[in-house]
Design goal:
heterodimer; A: about 425 residues; alpha+beta; Cytochrome Bc1 Complex, Chain A, domain 1; seven-stranded mixed sheet; five-stranded mixed sheet; 15 helices; about 45% helix; globular; B: about 425 residues; 2 domains; six-stranded mixed sheet
Amino acid sequence: MGMKTFEQLDETLHFEEFDNGLKVYVLEKKGFNKTYATFTTHYGSIDNHFKPLGKEENVKVPDGIAHFLEHKLFEKEHGDVFQDFSKQGASANAFTTFNRTAYLFSTTGDVKTNLTTLIDFVQEPYFTEKTVEKEKGIIGQEIRMYDDNPDWRVYFGLIENMFHHHPVKIDIAGTEKSIAEITKDTLYECYETFYHPSNMILFIVGPVNSKEILDFVKENQSKKTFKEKAPIERFFEEEPPSVAKPKKVIEMTVQTPKCYIGFKEASANRKGKELMRHELSVNLLLEMMFGKSSPNYETLYEEGLIDQTFSFDYTEENGFGFSMLGGDTQSPDELVERISEMVESFKNESVSQDSFERARKKKIGAFLRSLNSPEFIANQFTRYAFNEMDLFDVIPVFESLKMTDVEEVLQNHFKKEAMTVCQVRKKKS
Amino acid sequence: MGIVNHRKTDLHGMTVHTIETKKYKTTSFILQIKEAIDEKNVTKRALLSYVLQSGTKDFPSSKELRSALDDLYGATLNADLSKKGENQVISIRMEVANEKFLANSEPVLDQAFHLLSQVLLAPALENGAFKEGIVKKEKRSLKQQIESIYDDKMRYANKRLLEEMYESEPYRLNVYGNEGEVDVITSQELFDYYKKVIATNRLDLYVIGDISTDEMIEKVKKHFRLPENRATEDSPLHSIDEKKISDVKEIFEEQDVQQGKLHMGYRTYTTYRDDEYFALQVFNGVFGGFSHSKLFINVREKESLAYYAASRFESHKGAVFVISGIETGNYEKAVKIIKEQHEEIKNGNITDDEFNQTKAMINNQVLETIDHPIGLSEVLYHNVVAGTNRTIEEWMEGIKRVTKEDVVKVAQKVTLDTIFFLKGAGTNGNENV
């Protein structure tokens, strides 16, 4: 059993790695009513080409299968696991991202019973042809719901523009056509490969006793047998640094156009501290360039090119990285032009120490605020851990950043040839 | 002391609610400004919430105000609008890092207090009215906000349902106002309206964090200098929802969307202040509030008609709303199943599991909500809106006491009023290069 104390934050994290490879973390939050637990596999929509555990041949699986599997894991021979949780006074949920699938519950009642339900339902799959078929209708409606959502379309359209081959460009839920190919056998094959305990993290945060929880989980795991752990072989095609498509326009029934601008990261293979430094540097720079207190933001707002929906973010992991910025705008082409000019002129001016310090303070404050949220802690800790980073390093890394870090990012990330645009525009009738 | 250490102090015509807790790494301020929603002022009030967060006397532009906030370790400030029953509430929220977690322990709390008071009491002015430049920009933002409702089909269908269902009641009004009324508002008119708000609106300030009530009261006295002899006019407590329904109104609209959006509105003749409120909570939970509810099980799990099928209710208007995204051709089938679920409850067909799970989930939900500073302030503010004085313990006890018979009784009062269905033509989102 291990323990790490973060004095400045007044938090202590307990952890243990079991023989089967499962990593468990417990963060005690005194004074909270709620306990929140996530059980996450390092498996998402991008893992569509791999060597199944114990097999020789590589396989390519249908788009949307990780998300489909997430839905189907809730169904058991005795019925729906959602019901078990709600009988036990907990609400359960799950989500699938590009590279994670997380199952979770929150409860203000009995933690151990719900924890058992969480671990057992994820570790005991039950797929049948009949239930797989039934789910296709439900997920079909989920896909259509997203198809009608202009914010999702513009976000995803931008990612599609950026990548030639990388599977991050595949819609997480797949298409109605691709999910039609899913069978119970393909689900089992993905499950066997990616749901091995050694590929998973269990995180519990709330008013609990960490030793008790760790012992309890250990007891649960010691009663089960798993195949020998083996490294997972995933295959990705070589991805060129350039963008696949510089611009795309999607026509929808909207009144206000939407416009996002993306910059693709040329070498998105960082891990650990290096990745954290890079990610925080780009986000800090974006804050300096386009944050609400920046001259650029003021100008764009005054010119009527942006409104309160304007936002930006940088993310990088598993071979893909990109920044994106934009929002609702009445003049999408003009916004693109102005933002490109602003990025270029930022490159030619010297970065101001004042705005650097201000952006850093803002980021540190925002991080502290996030730590009020058990959901943020569990989900982000897991994401960081899969990328060999520690969430609780964020403040010290912010404090250690230098102007030169930001200057380097400015020259290397925001390149003209790495830029792409996606717009949603009003459909012509 | 109960689950929450909540103290109320009346000061200068403002009620200060302090909640001392060590749970958070931040201190939160939530200022609620309440007035009855009204055709004449609805758009002005929406615009006011935009203008107030865009500059103060000392920081007379958005950029300067945002820089001041960033310097306070990224303190957040936002003003937004909500409809609580027949009220249009402006909420100004600020959150600031607790000094003890900062490397060089800066006195950010006092500065934050001052800044918040300035946002409310010392706005950016010129020539005796709001700054023209700010008003102009914020008008544009507000108009874009109103337009964006159309782009989010779920929000759009919800807005259309309210307009049809509450045709002749103030509750039909959108909280952001009417797009056509924005441009004609002058800075002077807006400022006159602002003075009336400050002089007459009910103000409630919640301060939540590792604080001391006595110290906070001192700070309020120091920073919040409200006009003397404020005469706050409380909006009427009774909802005017007495309309009896003869026929269900069915409204169809067609747009080029992939998925039909089905929205159904029910009157319940029960609001937060009534004793039957707890039974209504349980009714909503059995009907469609959770993933074990009748709607989720029957519309989604049994028939695979939808990804979402749920109900929620508005505590102060006493309305239940059902929402589901379905294939356009499945309209009749979905509506029939939804109506059947309501009938089931009316006939007392509620299993022990459904009933007990619902109560456990509601209990869980309220405890989880109060773990979050904004959630906590919202739960407490219900009492202000409803003119009640229920503690969280009493609230939980109320849910516990509900019987199946109570739920059946309330279900029989619940009446379908209007169905709004946004039909899809199915070719939304074609791509062009």
